[in-house]
Amino acid sequence: xxxxxxxxxxxxxxxxxxxxxxxxxxxxxxxxxxxxxxxxxxxxxxxxxxxxxxxxxxxxxxxxxxxxxxxxxxxxxxxxxxxxxxxxxxxxxxxxxxxxxxxxxxxxxxxxxxxxxxxxxxxxxxxxxxxxxxxxxxxxxxxxxxxxxxxxxxxxxxxxxxxxxxxxxxxxxxxxxxxxxxxxxxxxxxxxxxxxxxxxxxxxxxxxxxxxxxxxxxxxxxxxxxxxxxxxxxxxxxxxxxxxxxxxxxxxxxxxxxxxxxxxxxxxxxxxxxxxxxxxxxxxxxx
Length: 287
Known about the structure:
- By secondary structure, the chain is α/β, with parallel strands linked by helices.
- Helix content is about 40%, strand content about 15%.
């Protein structure tokens, strides 16, 4: 049964509050799964199952799929759409309100997140898995095109920001496909893109991640100011101290946050710690 017929069968209507825009083209859905690299023994988490079109495409290739769906009105539709698959489990909960320990239970060997994310909650979901998850190996996200460009941006470009540097601390992001708005039902006002984020928790082993986040917040808090001025204001350091520290790291005294790579931010974090800077989040955590 075609997706539109299935939705009509159960009297479903789209809810703007949930950011519902479904992909229905089977060739495109299969391509997304291919781009994810998911294999027959892999475990997958899907966020926002919709009518189950992407869920089906994943289930054909993966060992198991655990889907999280917030809209209880999709229960019958998903049961119908996925009736031929015994490797799918749909959890009708808001994934942002489920503990990471519960999400990752039974997934200690590693898993992939594949999701067509609602635009309004893309960044919170991404950051939750970037910062809190222990066993995620890869995220394959269909998101707003402009957001994908920020996720995979290179330093010293207008799209590069704190979210990019946060991703780069623990992984590598790459935009792999552009999807026109006409491919969605209903069609949104913007195009989308698929971004693949490979996770490597040991990429910068030993860095204090809480302090790193504070440095990013400082560096990008006021993009019109130089990095030096932002650090002086945030951490109450003198210009001489900050300029000396930046020079020691090979960073231009007039540099702005968007010019620094994740590696440079790691070195800057360590440098500030060595200068005795007390980071609010680390202090709160008792570090």
